[in-house]
What does this fold into?
Amino acid sequence: MRPVLHVFAAVVLSLVVAMPTAAKTPAAKTATTAAHASHPPGAAIASAHALATDAGLEMLRKGGNAFDAAVAVSGVLSVVEPVSSGIGGGGFFLLHDAKTGRDVFVDARETAPESATPASFLDAKGDLDRDRAQNGPWSAGIPGLPAALVHIAKKYGKLPLTTTLAPAIRIARDGFPVYERLEKGYASRRTVMERYRGTRAVFLADGDPPKVGETFKQPELAHTLELIASKGFDGFYRGETATKLLAAVKEEGGRWTPNELAGYRVRERTPLKFDYRGWHITTAPPPSSGGVALAEILQTVSGWDLQKLDPAHRTHILTEAMRRAYRDRTIYLGDPDFVKVPMSRLMSPDYAAGLRATIHPDKATPSELLPGQPAPLEDDETTHYSIIDAQGNLVSTTQTVNLTYGSGMVATGTGVLLNNEMDDFALKPGTANAFGVMGFEANAPKPGKRMLSSMTPSFMESKDKLVVIGAPGGSRIITEVLIGILGYDAGLSAQQVAALPRIHHQWLPDLISAEAGALDAQTVTALEAMGHKVNAAEANWGNLQTVAWDKRANTLEGGTDPRNPMGKAAVDTAPRAAH
Ligand code: GLY
It folds into this structure.
């Protein structure tokens, strides 16, 4: 754990796991009063890489809005964090358009190609072929991120893509300094990545793998980004890039069709909304499981005054709510264009009250008593950024190629590293009970279907404060965002929220995972006495990025996760000409 986390561990987690009795404002607090500013005093951006944050600020200086900044930040992250996300992957963009007052969720999740039937992921013995599920062309869904950039620029932005993608193109062509996570991630995926001709051409261009401090250049990716900037959708999904993508997938033994690429569309969905202790929360709908799980957990724990509980009981109640929500995630959730998700039930405060009634105040519920079938585990790559601009537009984006360096395969001649998002489907149907089988069916692969995600880009608003928040972390994204929300509710600053120590429970395995220092020995002993299994010394996880506007003081702040030394949160209140 980094020193800064040590400092916060004792104080700050005690604020969340032992929340102070902060003065609470009543529900439905969004109406502003004369004491509240109507617009933020400038802009704030937090992302996982300083070059991306700077690119977003550059767009605002050029007269762009938060949506232009989002395209620039997204494009740069795709270049400088290939380990986490890229234009060969997908993402979710939660937007608030200040002009119309509308919230919209742009779903740029990858889709399954026609060739991806469940049988195509089984080996001769009928077992899941993990290599096929996680490496190379079969593991890749049809990318969604380029379509989202084009859609957002056209519908919500003010600047052309030639301007907003210029920083990404420049950095891809001129290069950027390699940092530790890129080098280590490459080392962990090297044997897979070097199977592919296109990957070797990019990552071994100078004869050996990228090393910290070296300049990493991606000229072919720069060219592909230029085609998107000049031709929009057709720059990726038709013509030169599409032809190269199809040829590369075929060369490595996969099967994509021109129609699958040209037929890819983002979906605009209605975000989920619910209230928690006076905060209006706006969050991700299916095919993310994040918003539903977040709503279930927060509505379940709202029956307790968490501030009045000791740390062990507070952790116990949070854990029991997490356990129940993650179990429902597995059973009910999938792509809403393909399966009927019982949303009104899962989002209902009455349903949460029913869950609450099953929680024993002093005893853990063994997960095996809650029937179901575990979901595949998810890795913690992925990235998030948060933006507020001076007009009050908001962007909360989580984007991903799934596991470290995605599929490991760069499509020859494009610089595009393909995702391995197919692994987020339940690729092998379960054989347990009816609920388990149903769960796997909800998230079984089908042509054109989007795989279930945990990405949870969110907004939270009270009378006094507006927050944009999100994080990477695979299945731990949901609890990372949850702990962030509880931190803001406890009155913490954006930076304190980003630094909060983390705990997590996901039903199966039946275990409380905690970052080292998050739970003290006494709390662990008390939790064990209630029947919990606890691993209190896990390595740090997550990379939360958040910005907040205090409407009463009319100040902006940003918080970037101290676990990631490359991140940057910036506030820009320089006066601007009206635009
Ligand atoms: N691939 C991580 C997620 O979508 O949740």
